[in-house]
Amino acid sequence: MLSVLMFCPQFRPVVGGAERQAEKLANALVSAGCRVTIVTPRIDSESPDIEESGGVRIERFPLTNLSRRFPFPGIALLNIPSILWQVASAVRMRLTDNDVLHCHLASLQTAGAALAGRLGGIPVLCKAAVADQRSDLGEIEKTGVSGHLLAWLIRTLITNWIATTEGVEQALVRAGVTPKQIVRIPNGVDLSGISAQHSDGNLAHRFLYLGRLSKNIRRDVPTLIRAFDRLAVQHPDVELALVGSGDLFEETFALVTACEARDRIQMPGLDDADKWLSWADCFVLPSRIEGLSNALLEAMAAGLPCIANDIPPNREVLVDGVAGTLVPVGDEERLLEAMQRMASDAAHVHIMRAAALNRVRSHYGIESVASRYIALYEELIRNSDR
Given CB 3.0 to 4.6 Å as the disulfide criterion, which of 143, 213, 295, 353 pairs with 246? Predict the structure, then answer.
């Protein structure tokens, strides 16, 4: 039985796109006959040390962040080696009987995990998430001299990288990772979802944004709100739901409150994604920067026609506009036009829905993604034995 140890810098109860994708992949690997353990720092003191979920074992360890406990200048010089040591120790003691270490996102903590894997003699790989000019490593370098040293350390320790899209791969290359160190494997989505609940003959009346409302996510939700407010003047039956939470929730709520159509805009906060995917007729993703959006894949698998900002990862998923409508970033007029067409052209809705389903079924099924990871793990293990 192939045994996979996954490291996540954060995990439940903190759940974002990376964490959800890690758990989906872990569950699919278990279904394929692998043994999977996720090791992660304890974020919430109430979380159990050990948890079993869907056949996946989750193990949490205590982590002391000196920068948060003692926020004074210069503490980073002590905090960086402290976290490296804590994480490396926690991961090293869990390497026994595991064949490969799969890290999710590049970070200070990931460097500690990778160090443990290298010292333990098992293959280490890291899945990157950032597709803008900076990449995961570039984001780390933004912190200054210590960030540059940390990025160098990560490049040294991790020689196997996963890029979910061409944009992520190019960002890694710009950050100094050689192309031969990168394998392209996309995020995966469960294809046994709720697509049958959406009728082919309907217009789109209910528009959905699903994702965090946060500065570090970089989604152009204000442009979506303005475009919808104008759409609502022409179509009195349309609705919008902005489902998610984050540090921009209150600011976004204030924008909604100022809208003429505020009574037709819902902001439930963090809520069950499947419920809102069932509710919606059209999904809108106003990304400024993206790696590969899990919410976009989930919407496509749910049988929703999609509108997304025209950036490389969205363009790749939607096949240059064949499997969904692409609009320029920040272009309120084009976004309004795309939503108007969804609300008035049933034939277009049908074409976009069918194209989205075909695309996600042929390229992004989680079982297929898991099989590609298993093949990669086995190759890395064979090479490490040479």
Answer: 213
